[in-house]
Specification:
Elements: H1 17-28, H2 32-42, H3 46-58, H4 63-67, E1 91-96, E2 99-104, H5 121-147, H6 149-154, H7 165-171, H8 179-186, E3 190-192, E4 198-200, H9 208-225, H10 229-237, E5 244-254, E6 261-269, H11 272-277, H12 287-295, E7 298-304, H13 308-323
Parallel strand pairs: 1-3
Antiparallel strand pairs: 1-2, 3-4, 5-6, 5-7
Helix pairs in contact: 2-5
Length: 336
Protein backbone atom coordinates (compact mmCIF):
# COMPACT_ATOMS: atom_id res chain seq x y z
CA UNK A 1 0.00 0.00 0.00
CA UNK A 2 1.47 3.36 -0.94
CA UNK A 3 1.23 6.45 1.28
CA UNK A 4 -1.33 8.20 -0.96
CA UNK A 5 -3.81 5.33 -0.56
CA UNK A 6 -3.56 4.45 -4.19
CA UNK A 7 -3.64 0.69 -3.53
CA UNK A 8 -1.02 -1.95 -3.91
CA UNK A 9 1.59 -1.27 -6.50
CA UNK A 10 2.52 -4.18 -8.73
CA UNK A 11 6.19 -4.95 -8.57
CA UNK A 12 7.92 -4.37 -11.85
CA UNK A 13 10.02 -7.31 -13.09
CA UNK A 14 12.52 -7.28 -15.87
CA UNK A 15 12.75 -10.26 -18.24
CA UNK A 16 15.91 -12.27 -18.08
CA UNK A 17 18.11 -11.21 -20.99
CA UNK A 18 19.40 -14.73 -21.66
CA UNK A 19 16.01 -16.35 -22.21
CA UNK A 20 14.69 -13.42 -24.18
CA UNK A 21 17.75 -13.41 -26.42
CA UNK A 22 17.51 -17.16 -27.02
CA UNK A 23 13.81 -16.89 -27.87
CA UNK A 24 14.41 -14.03 -30.26
CA UNK A 25 17.20 -15.94 -32.00
CA UNK A 26 14.89 -18.89 -32.67
CA UNK A 27 12.07 -16.65 -33.83
CA UNK A 28 14.41 -14.65 -36.02
CA UNK A 29 15.73 -17.72 -37.84
CA UNK A 30 12.82 -19.85 -39.05
CA UNK A 31 15.13 -22.34 -40.79
CA UNK A 32 17.11 -23.23 -37.65
CA UNK A 33 14.46 -25.34 -35.88
CA UNK A 34 13.70 -27.63 -38.89
CA UNK A 35 17.42 -28.18 -39.42
CA UNK A 36 17.86 -29.19 -35.77
CA UNK A 37 14.92 -31.61 -35.98
CA UNK A 38 16.28 -33.12 -39.21
CA UNK A 39 19.70 -33.58 -37.60
CA UNK A 40 18.12 -35.48 -34.71
CA UNK A 41 16.05 -37.58 -37.11
CA UNK A 42 19.21 -38.57 -39.00
CA UNK A 43 20.73 -39.86 -35.75
CA UNK A 44 17.85 -42.22 -34.90
CA UNK A 45 18.72 -45.94 -34.95
CA UNK A 46 16.72 -48.02 -37.44
CA UNK A 47 14.10 -49.27 -34.95
CA UNK A 48 13.33 -45.80 -33.56
CA UNK A 49 13.28 -44.32 -37.05
CA UNK A 50 10.79 -46.96 -38.19
CA UNK A 51 8.54 -46.15 -35.22
CA UNK A 52 8.67 -42.46 -36.18
CA UNK A 53 7.66 -43.28 -39.77
CA UNK A 54 4.84 -45.61 -38.70
CA UNK A 55 3.48 -43.01 -36.29
CA UNK A 56 3.62 -40.29 -38.95
CA UNK A 57 1.92 -42.50 -41.55
CA UNK A 58 -0.83 -43.66 -39.18
CA UNK A 59 -1.74 -40.02 -38.38
CA UNK A 60 -1.81 -38.92 -42.00
CA UNK A 61 -4.27 -39.13 -44.94
CA UNK A 62 -2.00 -41.66 -46.69
CA UNK A 63 -2.51 -44.29 -43.97
CA UNK A 64 -5.68 -45.75 -45.51
CA UNK A 65 -4.21 -46.10 -49.00
CA UNK A 66 -0.93 -47.41 -47.61
CA UNK A 67 -2.43 -50.19 -45.53
CA UNK A 68 -4.78 -51.02 -48.41
CA UNK A 69 -1.68 -51.85 -50.43
CA UNK A 70 -1.93 -49.00 -52.96
CA UNK A 71 1.29 -47.33 -51.85
CA UNK A 72 3.89 -49.87 -52.95
CA UNK A 73 7.46 -49.09 -53.86
CA UNK A 74 8.51 -49.55 -57.46
CA UNK A 75 9.76 -53.07 -58.13
CA UNK A 76 8.67 -54.41 -54.74
CA UNK A 77 7.53 -57.98 -55.40
CA UNK A 78 6.51 -58.42 -51.77
CA UNK A 79 3.57 -56.02 -52.11
CA UNK A 80 4.67 -53.79 -49.28
CA UNK A 81 5.36 -56.58 -46.80
CA UNK A 82 8.57 -56.95 -44.81
CA UNK A 83 11.47 -58.44 -46.74
CA UNK A 84 13.34 -59.62 -43.67
CA UNK A 85 12.46 -60.18 -40.02
CA UNK A 86 15.32 -58.07 -38.65
CA UNK A 87 14.56 -54.50 -37.62
CA UNK A 88 18.14 -53.81 -36.61
CA UNK A 89 19.71 -53.42 -40.05
CA UNK A 90 19.00 -50.98 -42.86
CA UNK A 91 19.23 -53.53 -45.63
CA UNK A 92 20.90 -56.61 -47.03
CA UNK A 93 23.51 -56.68 -49.77
CA UNK A 94 22.97 -59.55 -52.21
CA UNK A 95 25.13 -60.78 -55.09
CA UNK A 96 22.92 -61.60 -58.09
CA UNK A 97 24.56 -62.65 -61.35
CA UNK A 98 27.81 -60.95 -60.35
CA UNK A 99 25.93 -57.73 -59.56
CA UNK A 100 25.48 -56.18 -56.12
CA UNK A 101 21.91 -55.39 -55.11
CA UNK A 102 20.48 -53.70 -52.02
CA UNK A 103 17.23 -54.82 -50.39
CA UNK A 104 16.02 -52.67 -47.51
CA UNK A 105 14.57 -54.59 -44.58
CA UNK A 106 11.43 -52.44 -44.56
CA UNK A 107 9.66 -50.76 -47.51
CA UNK A 108 9.26 -47.67 -45.30
CA UNK A 109 13.03 -47.11 -45.51
CA UNK A 110 13.02 -46.22 -49.20
CA UNK A 111 9.55 -44.79 -49.87
CA UNK A 112 9.16 -41.36 -51.39
CA UNK A 113 6.05 -40.26 -49.52
CA UNK A 114 3.66 -37.78 -51.19
CA UNK A 115 3.34 -34.36 -49.59
CA UNK A 116 0.06 -32.53 -50.27
CA UNK A 117 -0.35 -28.76 -50.12
CA UNK A 118 -3.46 -28.90 -47.93
CA UNK A 119 -1.74 -30.87 -45.14
CA UNK A 120 -0.83 -29.22 -41.87
CA UNK A 121 2.67 -27.68 -41.82
CA UNK A 122 3.85 -30.12 -39.14
CA UNK A 123 2.70 -33.22 -41.02
CA UNK A 124 4.13 -32.01 -44.33
CA UNK A 125 7.45 -31.21 -42.66
CA UNK A 126 7.62 -34.69 -41.07
CA UNK A 127 7.19 -36.38 -44.45
CA UNK A 128 9.79 -34.11 -46.04
CA UNK A 129 12.28 -35.07 -43.31
CA UNK A 130 11.51 -38.76 -43.85
CA UNK A 131 11.94 -38.41 -47.62
CA UNK A 132 15.25 -36.61 -47.11
CA UNK A 133 16.65 -39.31 -44.84
CA UNK A 134 15.42 -42.09 -47.13
CA UNK A 135 17.03 -40.48 -50.20
CA UNK A 136 20.33 -39.78 -48.46
CA UNK A 137 20.53 -43.25 -46.87
CA UNK A 138 20.00 -45.04 -50.16
CA UNK A 139 22.44 -42.73 -51.96
CA UNK A 140 25.16 -43.41 -49.37
CA UNK A 141 24.73 -47.18 -49.30
CA UNK A 142 24.58 -47.60 -53.08
CA UNK A 143 27.72 -45.49 -53.43
CA UNK A 144 29.50 -47.68 -50.84
CA UNK A 145 28.45 -50.79 -52.74
CA UNK A 146 30.06 -49.37 -55.86
CA UNK A 147 33.23 -48.02 -54.24
CA UNK A 148 33.95 -51.02 -51.99
CA UNK A 149 32.76 -53.62 -54.49
CA UNK A 150 35.63 -56.06 -53.91
CA UNK A 151 35.02 -56.13 -50.16
CA UNK A 152 31.37 -57.12 -50.63
CA UNK A 153 32.38 -60.18 -52.65
CA UNK A 154 35.21 -61.33 -50.34
CA UNK A 155 34.22 -59.73 -46.99
CA UNK A 156 37.93 -59.43 -46.29
CA UNK A 157 38.87 -56.13 -44.61
CA UNK A 158 42.18 -56.08 -46.47
CA UNK A 159 40.13 -55.50 -49.64
CA UNK A 160 38.67 -52.22 -48.34
CA UNK A 161 39.85 -49.19 -50.31
CA UNK A 162 40.94 -46.02 -48.50
CA UNK A 163 38.05 -43.59 -48.21
CA UNK A 164 37.46 -40.58 -45.99
CA UNK A 165 34.16 -38.79 -45.53
CA UNK A 166 35.45 -35.73 -47.37
CA UNK A 167 36.52 -37.90 -50.31
CA UNK A 168 33.08 -39.52 -50.35
CA UNK A 169 31.35 -36.13 -50.54
CA UNK A 170 33.60 -35.13 -53.44
CA UNK A 171 33.03 -38.40 -55.33
CA UNK A 172 29.32 -38.81 -54.61
CA UNK A 173 27.67 -35.42 -54.03
CA UNK A 174 23.93 -35.25 -53.39
CA UNK A 175 21.44 -32.48 -52.58
CA UNK A 176 21.32 -31.69 -48.84
CA UNK A 177 24.23 -34.06 -48.09
CA UNK A 178 27.06 -32.45 -46.15
CA UNK A 179 29.78 -33.64 -43.77
CA UNK A 180 27.58 -33.38 -40.68
CA UNK A 181 24.68 -35.36 -42.15
CA UNK A 182 26.98 -37.98 -43.65
CA UNK A 183 28.66 -38.50 -40.28
CA UNK A 184 25.30 -38.88 -38.54
CA UNK A 185 23.85 -41.34 -41.03
CA UNK A 186 26.76 -43.76 -41.37
CA UNK A 187 26.57 -44.36 -37.61
CA UNK A 188 23.00 -45.68 -37.87
CA UNK A 189 23.10 -47.67 -41.13
CA UNK A 190 24.09 -51.26 -40.26
CA UNK A 191 24.13 -53.56 -43.27
CA UNK A 192 23.78 -57.31 -43.68
CA UNK A 193 26.54 -58.72 -45.89
CA UNK A 194 25.98 -61.48 -48.48
CA UNK A 195 27.36 -63.99 -45.95
CA UNK A 196 25.03 -62.86 -43.20
CA UNK A 197 27.39 -60.67 -41.16
CA UNK A 198 26.35 -57.25 -39.85
CA UNK A 199 28.69 -54.37 -40.61
CA UNK A 200 28.14 -50.67 -39.75
CA UNK A 201 28.41 -48.35 -42.74
CA UNK A 202 31.06 -46.29 -40.96
CA UNK A 203 33.48 -49.26 -41.07
CA UNK A 204 33.52 -48.93 -44.85
CA UNK A 205 35.30 -45.59 -44.46
CA UNK A 206 38.98 -46.47 -44.15
CA UNK A 207 41.72 -44.02 -43.23
CA UNK A 208 45.06 -44.15 -45.02
CA UNK A 209 46.74 -45.48 -41.89
CA UNK A 210 44.19 -48.27 -41.49
CA UNK A 211 44.48 -49.13 -45.17
CA UNK A 212 48.26 -49.49 -44.90
CA UNK A 213 47.89 -51.73 -41.84
CA UNK A 214 45.60 -53.99 -43.90
CA UNK A 215 48.17 -54.17 -46.69
CA UNK A 216 50.92 -55.09 -44.23
CA UNK A 217 48.69 -57.84 -42.86
CA UNK A 218 48.08 -59.10 -46.40
CA UNK A 219 51.82 -59.25 -47.10
CA UNK A 220 52.38 -61.19 -43.88
CA UNK A 221 49.61 -63.62 -44.84
CA UNK A 222 51.16 -64.18 -48.25
CA UNK A 223 54.58 -64.73 -46.67
CA UNK A 224 53.17 -67.26 -44.20
CA UNK A 225 51.57 -69.31 -46.98
CA UNK A 226 54.96 -69.93 -48.62
CA UNK A 227 57.03 -70.83 -45.55
CA UNK A 228 59.02 -74.04 -45.86
CA UNK A 229 59.05 -76.70 -43.13
CA UNK A 230 62.51 -75.57 -42.08
CA UNK A 231 61.39 -71.94 -41.80
CA UNK A 232 58.44 -73.04 -39.68
CA UNK A 233 60.75 -74.97 -37.35
CA UNK A 234 63.09 -71.96 -37.11
CA UNK A 235 60.18 -69.80 -36.02
CA UNK A 236 59.01 -72.38 -33.50
CA UNK A 237 62.47 -72.47 -31.91
CA UNK A 238 62.10 -68.77 -31.15
CA UNK A 239 59.10 -69.54 -28.94
CA UNK A 240 60.26 -70.11 -25.33
CA UNK A 241 59.87 -73.57 -23.81
CA UNK A 242 58.23 -71.96 -20.80
CA UNK A 243 54.80 -71.69 -19.21
CA UNK A 244 52.49 -68.96 -20.46
CA UNK A 245 49.24 -67.96 -22.10
CA UNK A 246 48.56 -67.52 -25.80
CA UNK A 247 45.92 -65.99 -28.05
CA UNK A 248 44.84 -67.17 -31.50
CA UNK A 249 43.23 -64.62 -33.82
CA UNK A 250 41.84 -64.88 -37.34
CA UNK A 251 42.22 -62.72 -40.43
CA UNK A 252 38.51 -61.88 -40.32
CA UNK A 253 36.55 -60.60 -37.39
CA UNK A 254 34.24 -63.10 -35.72
CA UNK A 255 30.73 -62.02 -34.74
CA UNK A 256 29.97 -62.08 -31.00
CA UNK A 257 26.77 -61.00 -29.20
CA UNK A 258 28.18 -57.65 -28.01
CA UNK A 259 31.30 -56.64 -29.96
CA UNK A 260 33.03 -58.38 -32.93
CA UNK A 261 36.61 -59.55 -32.40
CA UNK A 262 39.33 -61.31 -34.37
CA UNK A 263 40.24 -63.40 -31.28
CA UNK A 264 39.01 -66.99 -31.66
CA UNK A 265 40.87 -68.82 -28.86
CA UNK A 266 42.60 -68.16 -25.54
CA UNK A 267 44.72 -70.89 -23.97
CA UNK A 268 47.61 -71.66 -21.66
CA UNK A 269 50.32 -74.29 -21.38
CA UNK A 270 53.26 -75.33 -19.23
CA UNK A 271 55.33 -75.33 -22.42
CA UNK A 272 54.37 -72.77 -25.04
CA UNK A 273 56.71 -74.15 -27.69
CA UNK A 274 55.28 -77.66 -27.43
CA UNK A 275 51.68 -76.49 -27.40
CA UNK A 276 52.02 -74.07 -30.31
CA UNK A 277 53.85 -76.68 -32.38
CA UNK A 278 50.57 -78.65 -32.37
CA UNK A 279 48.93 -75.88 -34.39
CA UNK A 280 51.28 -76.59 -37.32
CA UNK A 281 50.02 -80.18 -37.66
CA UNK A 282 47.99 -81.15 -40.76
CA UNK A 283 44.83 -81.46 -38.65
CA UNK A 284 43.91 -79.64 -35.44
CA UNK A 285 42.22 -81.36 -32.52
CA UNK A 286 39.90 -78.38 -32.06
CA UNK A 287 37.21 -78.70 -34.78
CA UNK A 288 36.23 -75.02 -34.66
CA UNK A 289 39.82 -73.85 -35.10
CA UNK A 290 40.32 -76.42 -37.85
CA UNK A 291 37.32 -75.03 -39.74
CA UNK A 292 38.62 -71.48 -39.34
CA UNK A 293 42.10 -72.46 -40.51
CA UNK A 294 40.67 -73.89 -43.72
CA UNK A 295 38.83 -70.69 -44.61
CA UNK A 296 41.23 -68.00 -43.36
CA UNK A 297 44.60 -67.28 -41.77
CA UNK A 298 45.23 -67.78 -38.04
CA UNK A 299 47.77 -65.86 -35.96
CA UNK A 300 49.17 -66.39 -32.50
CA UNK A 301 50.75 -64.24 -29.84
CA UNK A 302 51.87 -65.27 -26.37
CA UNK A 303 53.35 -64.15 -23.07
CA UNK A 304 55.45 -66.17 -20.64
CA UNK A 305 54.25 -66.28 -17.03
CA UNK A 306 54.31 -68.69 -14.12
CA UNK A 307 50.73 -67.74 -13.25
CA UNK A 308 49.50 -68.97 -16.62
CA UNK A 309 46.37 -70.74 -15.32
CA UNK A 310 45.25 -67.74 -13.26
CA UNK A 311 45.89 -65.34 -16.15
CA UNK A 312 44.01 -67.57 -18.60
CA UNK A 313 40.91 -67.55 -16.36
CA UNK A 314 41.10 -63.77 -16.04
CA UNK A 315 41.41 -63.29 -19.80
CA UNK A 316 38.48 -65.62 -20.52
CA UNK A 317 36.27 -63.89 -17.95
CA UNK A 318 37.11 -60.45 -19.33
CA UNK A 319 36.51 -61.60 -22.92
CA UNK A 320 33.08 -62.96 -21.99
CA UNK A 321 32.21 -59.69 -20.23
CA UNK A 322 33.23 -57.55 -23.21
CA UNK A 323 31.96 -59.71 -26.08
CA UNK A 324 29.03 -61.62 -24.56
CA UNK A 325 30.47 -65.14 -24.84
CA UNK A 326 33.72 -67.10 -24.84
CA UNK A 327 35.95 -67.14 -27.95
CA UNK A 328 34.70 -69.48 -30.68
CA UNK A 329 37.38 -72.08 -30.02
CA UNK A 330 36.80 -72.06 -26.24
CA UNK A 331 33.07 -72.77 -26.35
CA UNK A 332 31.64 -76.12 -25.26
CA UNK A 333 32.21 -78.82 -27.83
CA UNK A 334 35.59 -77.47 -28.94
CA UNK A 335 38.61 -79.41 -27.76
CA UNK A 336 41.59 -77.47 -26.40
Amino acid sequence: MNRDGGGIRKRETKPRPGRRAARSRLQGNDSLVPRIILSRLLELPIQRYLRFIEKTVSNSPVSESFFRGDLVRKGDISGGKDLFSSKEVYGRVVVLDDHLSLFTTRPFLEYEFPVELDWSPGLAASFRWINTRNRLSRHIVLALLKYQRKFWTTEDETDLRPLTQQQFLALYPAPFLDASRLSRLIRVLPLLTPRGNIIPARRLFVSRRRFLSYQIRRILHAEARFLTDREIQDRLRKIPAAAGVYEISSSRRAQYPLIPSDVVYLGSSRCLRSRLRNYTLPRLANPRLEALRRSQQLFVRFVSTRKFQFLEKQLLAEFRRMHGQLPLGNRLGAAS
